[in-house]
Amino acid sequence: MTRHLPVILFLLPLCLAINLPVIGLKHREWCRPLVITIVIGMVLVSIANLVGVLHTGTIHYAFGGWAAPVGIEWVADGLASVMTVALSLVALVCVIFLSSVLFPYLGSRIVPFYILVLLLIASLIGMVFAGDLFNLFVFLEVSALCAYALVGLAGGKALVAGFRYLILGTFGASLYLLGVGYLYAETGTLNMADLALRVPPLVGSKAIAVGVLFMFIGLGIKMALVPLHGWLPDAYTYAPDRVSPMLASLVTKVALYGWIRIMFWVLGAHAVVYQIPVLFLVGLLGAVAALVGAFLALSQENIKRMFAYGGLSHIGLVLVGISLGNQTGFAGGVFYLLNDAVMQAGLFFWAGAIIHLYGVRNIEDLTRLHGGAGWMSVALVVIALSMIGIPPTGGFFGKWYIILGALEAQNYLAIAAVLIATLLTLAYFLKLFERVFRERSVEQPPLIREVPLAVRVSLGATSVAVIVLGLMSDHIVSFLLKTAIPPGL
Amino acid sequence: MKQMHDSLIVQTMSQLLIPLAQLFSLYVLFFGQYGPGGGFVAGVIWTTSMILTFLVFGLKSPQGRLVEKMLHGDGVGLIIFVGVGGLCLVGGGEFLNYANLGIPGLGAPAQRYMGILISQIGVAVDVAVTGISIVLSLAYHDTEQEYDV
Questions:
Q1: pTM for this one?
Q2: Which of A22, A156, A242 sits opposite B75 (nearest CB)?
Q3: I want to staple A269 with a disulfide (CB 3.0 to 4.6 A). Which of A228, A367, A489, B71 is the partner?
């Protein structure tokens, strides 16, 4: 039974997504409880899968019974299982949040909306488990198509942002596919494990280098690495407030995970550390992204846009972590990736709730809160502490392990990048705090509306998760070091 | 396009052509087991017959209404595909391992044949519906409006 768990995890949201039109035809109000139930089921299955993988070792799931190099294979190893647990948990809080009564009633459009959300979750699961490069592409595209539609759901400006995302995202996917084509032409296989055997002798070949570069640029667009991030701020700002947490916390992170997979499991840790300068490139771009993202966030007026740029800078930090070429840096990077998913979700929950409760979209208008909004402000402070990197939150320990890895690798540029990015993050959150806590606008009295339960649950869960990740960081990182390190690193 | 085409020649010819195209689509679907063809191609050919239907007879005619009704079958193809895969899972094999389809009285090769055929039917249905919905939304549906999400 255990060996079927990865595919069951994928089938749960997929089956509901394809049955929802039938169910939703008569009973529209069933959609919400069904979706939440299924995602809770996913959390349980993903935990069961993690336990199973820890007990029996990596699961290789051959679709249709065809063995790996010929058939399609899913690989559930330590890293993938940890990722799916995190993904299901974050997806659960996001789904609770997006079904809140805070947001306008969707009417008949609720069915297609939930279908898109479920397909997005299913395809992200597929991306995490995909054992060959082409399937990674397929799921990348499915998730991207759902994301385009979800961004453009509101019409108007969101449609333009969504269309821009579509153009750039399709461009990225095409580049990725081109890269896969180069690798296939050179090695004759698409399976990751098979490629890992065939690529090392060819590692000096120009075709491999060009292919990897294309794949990196393609996934770079998907993960919004800084020079290629043009689509992200608009898309996340104009996306409906109920879906931007899910997009911000999951989509770019899983694309980044895909790149980690390709770099360390296809090219192989030995090749990227000792033979080709890809880690240097990734580290440099990561450092640039960390600084530029935080710097641009500093100059934003719109709250959601500021958080979107903050997310760009954190993608850069994760890349800095994994580019250090040692186990500490890698574990730190992956740990920071998990943290970042939670933090981004939390920040966009907060932004969405503030927009709908108080009608505040810009940082200037935050003075209208009069320091009120009680525990919502507490949640903001907790998540912000983690974004900045102050103990005992998860963000601090993520950065801590990245810096430890950098010291081990004697990469002082990386340390400088992490520290300056931290200072810049502190700067833009101070700008936010000043408006929330210090200044009072005299004219407008604060609009007080009761915070809906779903918002309380999701915001509370993310802020508790941030602290728990911090307090448990020692266990989590040593667990990652034990189970999720690529072979040969 | 919204009304029936006024030429009798076009109407009569398409009355001949549409069933022929559909027959050919089925041929491609089943022949896909042995040679070039399969679900995707069959679905596309079926779509062309449907497009011809509402180009010639208009969407208001009984035939055109049938085309619009087909749009509701969007998930049916996927249900068939995942259903077959799930049956294999229930039967004890991997997802989509048709040898474990669990049809009594059939050997593994025959079960694989059936499994591939049924899942290809699912693919064909989905491709056909998607093709029609693309054409209809490009041709008719005007969605220049903002929603409150």
A1: 0.92
A2: A22
A3: A489
- Chain A CB within 8 Å of residue B74 CB: yes
Mean pLDDT computed over B115-120: 90
What span, in angstroms and rounded, lies between the C-alpha atoms of A456 and B77? 39
Domain residue ranges of chain A, discontinuous segments joined by +: 1-129, 132-275, 277-489
For position A204, what pLDDT does the model report? 81
Task: Give pLDDT, residue B139.
Answer: 76
Q: What is the pLDDT of residue A358?
A: 81
Residues B18-34: pLDDT tens digits? 999 999 999 999 988 88
- Among B82, B93, B147, beta carbon nearest to A154: B147
Q: Which residues on A lie below 8 Å from B82 (Cβ)?
A: 11, 14-15, 18
Distances from the Cα of B68 to the Cα of A104, A112, A284, B71, B131, angstroms: 30, 18, 54, 5, 12
Q: How many domains does chain B have?
A: 1
**Chain A residue with the nearest C-alpha to that of B84:** A64
B92 CB-near residues (< 8 Å, 6+ apart) = B100
Which residues contact residue A487 at a Cβ distance below 8 angstroms, ignoring those fewer than 6 apart?
A: A268, A269
Residues of A whose CB is below 8 A from B122: none
Residue B44 lies in a domain: yes
pLDDT class of A373 with cuts at 50, 70, 90:
low
Residue B22 contacts A where some CB pair is shorter than 8 Å:
no
Residue B3 Cα distances to A424, B6, B57, B69, B139, angstroms: 63, 9, 7, 18, 13
Q: What is the pLDDT of residue A335?
A: 94
> What is the rounded average pLDDT of the residues A89-110?
87
A117 to chain B, minimum CA–CA distance in Å?
14
Decide if B39 is inside a domain: yes
Angstroms from B57 CA to nearest CA on chain A? 29
User: Which positions in chain A touch B93 (Cβ < 8 Å)?
Assistant: 65
DSSP-assigned letters across all residues of A404-461: HHHHHHT-HHHHHHHHHHHHHHHHHHHHHHIIIII---SSSPPP--PPPHHHHHHHHH
Residue A343 has pLDDT above 90, yes or no: yes
Chosen from A12, A18, A108 to mutate, greatest number of chain B CBs within 10 A:
A18
Note whether B49 and B70 are within 8 A (CB). Answer: no
Domain that holds residue B132: 8-139
Supply the pLDDT for residue A391. 84
Longest CA span, chain B: 58
Note whether A266 and A194 are within 8 A (CB): no
With H, G, I as helix, E, B as strand and everything else as coil, classify residue A9.
Answer: helix
B116 touches chain A (CB under 8 A): no
Within a domain: B149: no
Q: Is A242 on the interface with B (CB under 8 A)?
A: yes
Separation between Cα atoms, residue A439 and residue A70, nearest integer Å: 65
A103–chain B nearest CA distance, Å:
7
Burial of B143 (0-12, 13-18, 19+ CB in 10 A): exposed
Contact residues, chain A, for B72 at CB < 8 Å = 21
Phi and psi at residue A153, in whole multiples of 5°? -60, -35
Cα-only R_g, chain B: 19
Work out the minimum CA distance from A140 to partner chain B, whole angstroms: 19
Q: Is residue B122 part of a domain?
A: yes
Q: Write down the pLDDT at residue B33.
A: 80
Inter-chain residue contact B96 with A63, CB threshold 8 Å: yes
Whether residues B147 and A14 touch (CB distance < 8 A) is answered with no
Section A183-206 average pLDDT: 89
